[in-house]
Amino acid sequence: MENSASPDGVSRRRVLTTTGGVLAGAALAAQAVPAFAATSYDADAIVVGHGLAGLVATAELAAAGRKVLLLDQEPEASLGGQAFWSFGGLFFANSPEQRLMGIKDSRDLAWQDWLGTAGFDRGVSDPSGQDHWAYKWAEAYVDFASEEKHDWLAGLGMQWFPIVGWAERGGGLADGHGNSVPRFHVTWGTGPAVVEPFEKKVRAAVEDGKVTFKFRHRVDGLVTTNGTVTGVQGAILEPSSVSRGKPSSRTVVGSFELKAPVVVVTSGGIGANHDLVRANWPARMGAAPKTMITGVPAHVDGRMLAITEKAGGRIVNPDRMWHYTEGLRNYDPIWPGHGIRILPGPSSMWFSATGKRFNTPDIPGYDTLHTLKTITDTGYDYSWFVTTQKILAKEFALSGSEQNPDLTEKNIWMLLSRIWQTPEPIEKFKKNGVDFVVASSLSEMVRGMNKLTGKNLIDLADLTRQIEARDREIDNEYTKDVQVMGIRNALRYPGDTLSRTASAHKIMDTSAHPLIAVRLNILTRKTLGGLQTDLSGRVLNASGNPVPGLYAAGEVAGFGGGGIHGYRSLEGTFLGGCLFSGRQSGKAAAEATG
């Protein structure tokens, strides 16, 4: 992928408005795609990738009466892709759940936070700029998340846990990075419940003869005719019976070429391809880690980015990415290098590999990428939480549908049990995970930390000094310690008091023990850049013109426009980006083939 931050020039064209993007884009798309009546096609549309964005786009195409071929290199067991494994967090502004919790949110506040977080600076007002369409997608998405999104998804049967989470708090200025208010809505049923309504729609369309699944079909190239994308070609892989998420065979047993007047690429990002992650790692995030764990299945390999670029698509913002700093090595891995992220509350103390406490905004749950840079600058690929059993029990959550059986299985009794006991998945990680040190004293904990890494980097006296200094700040309701301020602030929000923040206490308070140290690894996850698209999801070329017949949605398109998030995310916006861009591209592709 190109790394240049200086975009190629493009000719000026009519700018789509955020409110009329789909309709105007569809009209332009119809003009851009030539008549195909005289050509024999296998379907009206081909969708490459059966993850969430692909399912949404396919559902829209089928609803419009189009015949669709839905291709993926993985077997049927992986239908729904990475979204199935997610925690199911969705970003809404001014939702019923927020109002129930007494949260005052608005479209304007959400847009303020988005702009402060994204930091768009690559030609927003220049039609040739890398951020030109990203900005427009962001504005359209915030409108969507503030208005139609909640009712649309609720109408499909989705429900959300009533306590709204406060992710990525920023910790800076009002117009800077982070969510001013809680906006993280956990779907009742987690990731599988987000996938379910669209999978049902697509399977119903299969029964009606409108959609045909093509599992184990790996796309190796886009077919173009006179400059128009008219199909795909690639390899048929041998049948595979592996369970969801497990790596599947790449043994080729045949080849294929399929034709359609439009192709929609929804193939995901690069998170499992560490070579690509490192190749695009920006200097502003420090040196690329030598050791990382993987937050996505092995099939999230980024292949379709280069394939689509070869067919004329423009890749923008490839250096923007989103990786987590609180990764645990999974003691029971599903895919190679499988890592799980801790979704932390605000109370654990955060230290470097050498035992130096991090400063603001490197506080749990505040500024992911700033903390990532702080960690890489230490010269080590890991850091430490020092915490207590009391904090772990109340504040630790694990990302992933399989790590939250109460929410995923919609088990209210199991969910309520979190009130009086540590969730079982967390206790299992504490017992079986290689990254945990549990101790009855600080000296025992330090010995365990140094033994775990094989290096005597943690000095007991220095760690003791830092913990005792923090503990003295607990004696009053006011403090100069920014993290303790954050804890007090969190406890003013009922949602945090109920479910995500332990009462303020001293780390050395023995009633809160045992002491726990957790080694935190860097966990690969999301691609924030990708194929540049207009508001109808049409892939643009280096001159800024649509590649006829070619659309993209989801992570491969930077969740819209080649980078809807800019440099950073407000969280809960990845699934939503797949939903929104999949719907936009599906509707527009249907109009273009009408």
From TrEMBL:
Molecular function per GO: steroid dehydrogenase activity, acting on the CH-CH group of donors
Keyword vocabulary terms for this entry: Flavoprotein, Oxidoreductase, Signal
Keyword tRNA-binding: no
Signal peptide: 1-37
Highest taxon above the source species: Bacteria
Pfam families the record matches: FAD_binding_2 (PF00890)
Residue ranges constituting the FAD-dependent oxidoreductase 2 FAD-binding domain according to the UniProt record: 44-575
Keyword Flavoprotein among record annotations: yes
Protein name per UniProt: FAD-binding dehydrogenase
Species classification: Bacteria, Bacillati, Actinomycetota, Actinomycetes, Kitasatosporales
